Amino acid sequence: MRLAHLFIVSAAHLHGVLATTQLPLADETLMINGVTFETRARWMRLANQALGELSGSPCPFAAFGTVIVNHTASDEGELICMGVNENGKTGNPSSHGEIAAITNCTKILTDPTGKFRLTATEAAAAFTDLSLYTNAESCPMCASAIRWAGFREYIYGTSIARLVEKGWGQIRIPSVDVFEASFDLPYPSRLMANVLTNETDPYFLWQYDPSYPCPRGCSRTQSGKSCDAT
Ligand SMILES: *[C@@H]1O[C@H](CO)[C@@H](O)[C@H](O)[C@H]1NC(C)=O
Ligand SMILES: *[C@@H]1O[C@H](CO)[C@@H](O)[C@H](O)[C@H]1NC(C)=O
Ligand SMILES: *[C@@H]1O[C@H](CO)[C@@H](O)[C@H](O)[C@H]1NC(C)=O
Ligand SMILES: [Zn+2]
Predict the structure, then answer these.
(1) Ligand 1 atom having least distance to the Cα of 74
(2) What does the alpha-carbon distance between residue 53 and residue 120 come to, in Å, rounded to a whole number?
(3) For residue 70, how far is its CA from the centre of ligand 1 (angstroms)?
(4) Which listed ligand is nearest to 98 at the C-alpha?
(5) pLDDT one-digit tens code per residue, 107-132
(6) Distance between CA atoms of 164 and 202, rounded to whole angstroms?
(7) Model pTM greater than 0.85?
(8) Ligand 1 atom at minimum distance from 129 CA
(9) Which candidate, 65, 85, 197, places its Cα nearest to that of 132?
């Protein structure tokens, strides 16, 4: 039983790796689409920091944070919006971090008194210039939303395989499979996997492992079951 379980996990892991023609972007020397790893790392860190800014805790249980950036404006990139998992706040089970961010960006892009003041049609088209950074690989719902939006780039930290390995309930379809199946859609999207996992992993590895330390700025509650801001 234990062996079988291990096999399934490692098969899922292998599948995620073998199915992909995209290699993980963990190499600091790579510059993809003109953007340095250091710049990618900065935006991925902001996806982590979005938790503290938007969820009210630097270490929420559902630690899924997203930022949406315009790298076509400059290689450094310009922040358009952020979002974090809002299930607990809104009661809407589909408000994952990526969906919350896409919803937030849409609002910001079409705000008649805001910086962009786009029409709905213009806002929908604007996503094809943008890059979505998320600190964990998107579930198939969010990966599909990312493809429907036509994002130019999609960059994730901790993989679904890693989440599953560490106790998370997940739908075991890697984003690359969703991307591979979306060839009928008009816009190509570059997928960059496992970016800055040394900094995204700590947000996801404590929830089901009582011996794993809380993310920075947090410590175990008395029961040991969750992490709280210190
Ligand atoms: C992104 O940058 C490009 C190039 O400067 C610009 O044309 C486009 O309007 C920008 N998109 C948004 C949503 O700011
Ligand atoms: C939307 O994004 C903006 C800009 O990053 C941020 O200030 C704001 O708090 C976000 N709103 C929500 C609901 O996440
Ligand atoms: C995580 O790894 C990247 C290289 O992939 C490095 O630049 C960064 O400093 C590391 N972060 C920490 C906190 O050690
Ligand atoms: Zn999702």
Answers:
(1) 5
(2) 28
(3) 6
(4) 4
(5) 999 999 999 999 999 999 999 999 99
(6) 15
(7) yes
(8) 1
(9) 65
